[in-house]
# Entry
Amino acid sequence: MTWVLVAAFMWNGQPSVISDEVFYSSLEKCQTEAEARRKMLDATRPEYMEDAKYWVWCTQIPQEV
# Structure
């Protein structure tokens, strides 16, 4: 199965969804990268986005049938 990292943000009432556009061959690899991304987001969050909410997770890419 192929996995992709997804991040969703909510700031000033505006949602935004992004992906790192990297495919991971296992859930474990994706989860490791998701944890690193959370830490990076916490460490680099601008002061003006202090109230922003964000979520980072891994999801499978459906295989064609």
Q: What stands out?
A: The chain has a mean pLDDT of 90. Strands lie at 2-11, 14-24, 53-61. The longest strand covers residues 14-24. Helices lie at 27-44.
